[in-house]
From TrEMBL:
Biased composition (Acidic residues): 45-70
Keywords carried by this UniProt record: Coiled coil
Lineage, broadest ranks: Eukaryota, Sar, Stramenopiles, Ochrophyta, Bacillariophyta
Chain segments annotated as coiled-coil in the UniProt record: 91-118
Region Disordered, annotated ranges: 45-79
Protein name (record): Uncharacterized protein
Lineage: superkingdom: Eukaryota
């Protein structure tokens, strides 16, 4: 509106000045006067046209501003619309959070009080039982159970491996090359040390059960003893151990005694076989040693 007033006033003043100038000018020529009049009219027309256009622009701007203000007012009304349900939900959520915080503080307070009592008086018997003895007993029970089961599975696996070794060695009996390959393979599986004697003991037990006494059997057993690089005294101890494991099979014990007496040559080795003779003689009420000696001669024949 200010712009419109300014343009209108300036245009009016300009027209007034031109008219005043025209009125003062001498009337010497009609052409000159006509040209000046036409020029003044054209200027006035231009000013009026500009004024009309400005009015149109101003009105359009005013309408757009009113629409924007209306839309902004509607959006703000929507953004800040209030519902009673929202207030109720917010109140319930706030109450729930407050209860959680109160419970947390209460638990911390109880723990602090217990810690203070323990620091002053020490743990009571029920507390000591519930917090130390019972968990320790449970852990001990579980640890013992795990150990026993692990040991059982380990021992079973070892026993199966030893049985497989003995069976394969007996299967290749007489084929020294195959027997050596089998020995090396199972030595890698079972390792060295005490397990070597277990391997030989298992082999002797199975051999006494499954093989008959023969020169070939004595030759095979002599070769197996050479693979272990044992002294005759140690070899005799392994034979005795195998005989002890065959407590319910006296015939197999007799075969082991026969094999030992014909493989071992040193007096120390033969002396170490005495426990087998005693085990066999104990099965008879009287004359046991003589019966055992005669039985060994019979086996040799």
């Amino acid at each position: 509106h200010d712009f419109y007033d300014q343009v209108t006033s300036e245009g009016a003043s300009m027209v007034g000045k031109r008219r005043a100038t025209t009125a003062v000018m001498p009337q010497s020529s009609e052409v000159t006067y006509g040209a000046q009049f036409v020029s003044a009219v054209m200027d006035e027309t231009e000013i009026e046209g500009a004024t009309a256009e400005d009015e149109t622009e101003v009105s359009e701007y005013s309408e757009e501003s009113m629409e924007e203000e209306s839309s902004a007012t509607t959006a703000s009304d929507k953004a800040f619309s209030y519902k009673p349900e929202d207030a109720e939900i917010a109140a319930r959520k706030l109450a729930k959070d407050m209860r959680k915080e109160e419970n947390k503080i209460a638990r911390q307070k109880v723990k602090a009080e217990k810690a203070a009592r323990r620091a002053e008086n020490g743990m009571s018997l029920p507390e000591f039982t519930a917090e130390i003895l019972v968990p320790a007993a449970v852990v001990g029970f579980l640890g013992n159970w795990v150990y026993k089961n692990s040991k059982f599975l380990y021992d079973k696996g070892q026993a199966d491996t030893l049985a497989s070794y003995a069976n394969e060695m007996i299967y290749h009996d007489g084929d020294f090359e195959e027997m050596k390959m089998c020995q090396n393979e199972y030595r890698r599986k079972l390792g060295i040390g005490p397990k070597r004697r277990k391997m030989l003991t298992s082999y002797l037990e199975q051999y006494a059960k499954k093989k008959v006494v023969s020169p070939q059997a004595i030759s095979s057993l002599s070769y197996v003893f050479s693979l272990y690089n044992l002294s005759e005294k140690d070899a005799a101890k392994v034979i005795v151990k195998a005989a002890e494991n065959l407590s319910t099979q006296p015939a197999s014990r007799s075969k082991l005694l026969f094999f030992g007496e014909h493989i071992l040559k040193s007096p120390e080795g033969l002396t170490e076989l005495q426990p087998i003779r005693d085990m066999l003689a104990s099965a008879y009420r009287s004359g046991g040693p003589a019966i055992v000696a005669n039985a060994q001669k019979t086996i040799g024949q």
